[in-house]
Design brief:
Layout lengths: L21 H11 L11 E5 L2 E4 L4 E4 L2 H4 L8 H13 L10 H13 L7 E5 L2 H14 L7 E5 L8 H6 L3 H4 L9 E4 L4 H7 L4 E6 L15 H12 L2 E5 L21 E4 L10 E5 L1 H5 L15 H15 L3 H17 L4 E7 L2 E6 L4 H10 L2 E2 L1 E4 L2 E4 L7 H22 L4
Parallel strand pairs: 3-13, 5-6, 5-7, 7-8, 8-9
Antiparallel strand pairs: 1-2, 2-3, 4-10, 9-10, 11-12, 12-15, 14-15
The chain binds pyridoxal-5'-phosphate.
Pyridoxal-5'-phosphate binds next to helix 5.
């Protein structure tokens, strides 16, 4: 694998003097950016394909992809040219108007989701906004006694107030209570628990087909199909949150492929880094729940974002990219599972969770950075990989080769510390 280690000269006029060192930038960061993210791990200045470079010129193999966002890696020529051409033609217009890329992307998403006639799309700028739209859709299915909404234990659906009401983690929720009411959480992947919880008082059930933030938890086979039958029988909407798992991440267009929900949210991978999300509603009845004037957005679905989405879907659909996601994912999981200190490996396609024998995941993330790899910890003993879908097996092998030393270094810095 050859990685040029000198960043190329930028092709566009610089608005920022980017010559500072990483530590100089971080000092300015802490003086000007809100502290909600803690201290950023590195200051990144450039990306190309699966590699990014920091302000000090060091390259990293990006195995997180901006948290399952950079489906085509960094600076993919198709996305760059689609966004550039669209910005040169027509950038933003508001939803008082529409544009060809918006309509074409909606049509393409409906086709890929195998949505029946009468299905529709609402575009947003993020995953949490797509969930907000789905939450409002669920409230519109709330008639008479049907007032409750179910989500899953350990679910993550975003950080705005409605999405937060669906998100399970107490540390995220409690500082912001009271949250929108009526949401209860049930055990994930447990058909009988779901069956017992869903009755005529439930307006909607929100399910991640694979729980990403919870550490890549894959439900038992048949779970999504059972959820489909249980919600249909009770008249509750079934909402699949495919924000992290959709758009080829798990080796199929959607992780729920084969089971049609009433609504589905997408975001992360859809724009290859350009912010865009969407709510897809299945069939005319559900698609009519949000009436004219009942929801809206200024930026959502603008021509640039939807052009980025079209470029992304076109690239993922071409050649053998999706087959490669499965092959490379399998290769990574098999290789990582053999590394000493790894207790189990989960996931599908290129969404991978790695359980460690010791609670050294945060230290492993730091050691991986030192070794030139970007990875992520979802818990004290769990790592997550969500690399670009274009990752090669050679790149995967370079991480497998480096992981034993990364885990040793992490154990050395963690063990014995308070
Ligand atoms: C990331 C994520 C969200 C929130 O998306 P944002 O773009 O961060 O607002 C919602 N649901 C799932 C499953 C996610 O992984």
């Amino acid at each position: 694998m050859s990685i040029p280690n000198v960043p190329a000269a930028p092709a566009v006029p610089q608005l920022v003097d980017a010559s500072g060192t990483g530590s100089e930038w971080l000092a300015r960061y802490s003086d000007s950016l809100m502290g909600v993210f803690g201290t950023p791990q590195r200051v990144l200045v450039r990306g190309e394909s699966c590699t990014v470079w920091d302000a000090d010129g060091k390259p990293y193999l990006d195995l997180l992809g901006g948290i399952a966002v950079n489906a085509l890696g960094h600076a993919h020529p198709s996305v760059v040219s689609a966004v550039t051409a669209q910005l040169n033609t027509l950038g933003h217009i508001s939803n008082f108007f529409t544009s060809p890329p918006q309509i074409a992307l909606a049509e393409k998403l409906l086709e890929l989701a195998q949505a029946p006639a009468g299905s529709k799309v609402f575009f947003t700028n993020s995953g949490t906004e797509a969930i907000e739209a789905a939450f409002k859709l669920a409230r519109r299915n709330s008639t008479g006694e049907r007032t409750r909404i179910l989500a899953m234990d350990h679910a993550f659906h975003g950080r705005t107030m409605g999405a937060l009401a669906l998100t399970a983690k107490p540390a995220y929720r409690e500082p912001f209570e009271p949250l929108p009411s009526g949401v209860a959480h049930v055990p994930y992947g447990d058909v009988e628990a779901l069956r017992a919880a869903v009755d005529g008082t439930v307006a909607a059930v929100f399910i991640e087909p694979i729980q990403g933030e919870a550490g890549v938890q894959v439900p038992p086979a048949g779970y999504l199909q059972a959820a489909r039958e249980i919600t249909r029988d009770a008249g509750a909407l079934l909402v699949f949150d495919e924000v992290q798992t959709g758009i080829g991440r798990t080796g199929t267009w959607f992780a729920s492929e084969g089971v049609l929900p009433d609504a589905m949210t997408v975001a992360k991978g859809l724009g290859s880094g350009f912010p865009i999300g969407g709510l897809i509603t299945f069939g005319p009845e559900v698609s009519g729940l949000l009436a004219p004037g009942q929801h809206g957005t200024t930026f959502g679905g603008n021509p640039i974002a939807t052009a980025a989405g079209l470029a992304t879907l076109t690239e993922i659909g071409s050649g053998n990219l999706l087959a490669g996601v499965n092959t490379t994912g399998e290769y990574l999981r098999t290789g990582v599972a053999k590394v000493p200190g790894v207790s189990s490996v989960r996931g599908r396609g290129l969404l991978i969770g790695i359980d460690l024998e010791q609670e050294i995941a945060p230290a492993a993330v730091a050691a991986a950075l030192d070794a030139g790899f970007i990875i992520n910890a979802t818990g004290p003993a769990t790592l997550r990989l969500a690399p670009p879908l274009i990752l090669t097996t050679d790149q995967a092998q370079s991480f497998i080769d480096a992981l034993p030393a990364i885990l040793q270094a992490a154990a050395a810095t963690t063990i014995g510390q308070p």
